[in-house]
Amino acid sequence: MIKKPIVLATLSVLFSALSHADTLGVYAGTGNWKPEFKGNFQDGTTQIGLGSGTNSLNIEEKNQTNFYIALEHPIPFLPNFKLATLDLESGGSGTFNQVVNFGGQNFTINDTLVSSFDLSHQDFVFYYELLDNWVNLDLGLTLRKFDGFVTLTSQNNASDTATETFDETIPMLYGKARFDLPLTGLSFNADINYISASGDTVTDTAFYVGYETSVGLGIEGGVRTFSLEVDDANDLSADLDFEGAFVHVTFHF
């Protein structure tokens, strides 16, 4: 997985920045994201798909709840902070025409496997505000903490079950750009978290339109894409993609 020296190197660059917010501000939002589950994961010799089709789990699309709160301040050198959480969990079932080896458990040919899938995580974001006018630019570092798992259980024999965990904290470069349309309350936004190292790549992007009233209450909506490619993390390899529309209710004061 991605190594700690990357975190230290990135922090050293960020902490050299001099830009900061002019006033104290708090930004918060909550809402739903409904992604399509695509890709596959592997533990042992068997590749298991998330979507529909042969040898796949047919993971159900469902609304995923997320929340964020960010604090921006005028103190030089000290980065702003954002905390974000995302529920990313679902389940499904599929029949496999081959022996499935997962978590040390062998499931028989033509067995129907019921799954629980969870990649929920928390983001701890440290960033600097480099531009703060009708064009806004934030750059920083995200520490994304996963505490996820995949569980497979035989529908034919409930005692045949296996779980693999995904417990990782991944550092990513963070950037956000916002373009305000003066006197309208409207904005166009782009968020990105990205890292690629040691054969692992994580990409999380969101493109959306926002509207904020004069009292700070607002709404934003757009499309978010999250891709995770890891090799042998806690004995689990994965090439996963999640993409779908989202909507948030926001408040700024």
Task: Provide a descriptive summary of the structure in words.
This protein has 253 residues and is mostly beta strands. The protein has one domain (4-252): Lipocalin (Beta Barrel). It contains 1 helix and 17 strands. A hairpin with a 2-residue loop joins β6 (100-102) and β7.
Labels describing this entry:
four-stranded antiparallel β-sheet, mainly beta, Lipocalin, ten-stranded antiparallel beta barrel, single chain, 4% helix, 67% strand, elongated, 253 residues
In short:
The chain is mainly beta and 253 residues long. The protein has a single domain, classed as Lipocalin.
For the termini, the CA-CA separation is 39 Å
Q: What is the count of β-strands? A: 17
Biggest sheet strand order reads: 1-3-4-9-10-13-14-15-16-17
H/E element order:
HEEEEEEEEEEEEEEEEE
Helix count?
Answer: 1
Question: Layout of helices and strands, plus pairs?
Answer:
Blueprint: H1 4-14, E1 25-43, E2 46-49, E3 64-72, E4 80-86, E5 89-96, E6 100-102, E7 105-107, E8 111-118, E9 121-132, E10 135-146, E11 148-154, E12 161-166, E13 169-180, E14 186-197, E15 200-212, E16 217-233, E17 236-252
Antiparallel strand pairs: 1-2, 1-3, 1-17, 3-4, 4-9, 5-8, 6-7, 8-11, 9-10, 10-13, 11-12, 13-14, 14-15, 15-16, 16-17
